[in-house]
Amino acid sequence: MRYTYENKKVIKRNRSEVIDAFLDYDNMHEWQPSLCRVELKKGAYRKEGHLVQLTYLTEGESTYTMNETIVDMKLPHKIVVQYQMGSVINTQTNYFEHYGADTLWIVETIFDFKEEPEHNEMTFQRRTRKGMTQFKRYVEGL
């Protein structure tokens, strides 16, 4: 099964600032508050092909881990990131466009499931929009 959707946000910062914040693993917890650990497993941070393990704490105090790989990077325009947790693969193609003095951030999201997902597509879309809004607020507050 596959879910595919697109979201857009205008961020009131220039493209360079937005991309720097997007790739700043030291401060990722600032806009992803449940993120409790970032561990480089392969390659170098901010480089195509890197493998980073992200560990999150749930409200029930348990943790879950997902792997992040930068699949393709054509800066300053595009970053393709793939996240894998178990048999679920989430590919996000992030576009960063000039929008006057601001940045238009476009995220094309594809979720691939080997089994029927526990949640419907709207649940995944809401989570993506929430994460984008948190990132936008963080970057605009810098």
Order of helical and strand elements: EHEEEEEEH
Overall pLDDT score: 96
Main sheet: strands, sense, barrel: 7 strands, antiparallel
What's the number of structural domains? 1
Whole-number radius of gyration?
15 Å
The number of helical runs is: 2
Q: Can you tell me the residue ranges where pLDDT is under 50 for at least 5 consecutive residues?
A: none
Class in CATH? Alpha Beta
Q: CATH superfamily, called what?
A: START domain
CATH topology: Alpha-D-Glucose-1,6-Bisphosphate, Chain A, domain 4
Task: Quote the distance from N terminus to C terminus.
Answer: 39 Å
Global geometry: globular
Subunit arrangement of the protein:
single chain
Structural class: alpha+beta
Quick take:
This protein has 142 residues and is α+β, with helices and mostly antiparallel strands.
SSE blueprint:
Elements: E1 2-11, H1 15-22, E2 35-42, E3 51-57, E4 63-74, E5 78-85, E6 88-99, E7 102-112, H2 121-140
Antiparallel strand pairs: 1-7, 2-3, 3-4, 4-5, 5-6, 6-7
Characterization of the model:
There is one protein chain. The N and C termini lie far apart (39 Å). With 142 residues, the protein is of the alpha+beta class. It contains 2 helices and 7 strands. It has one domain: Alpha-D-Glucose-1,6-Bisphosphate, Chain A, domain 4. The mean pLDDT is 96.
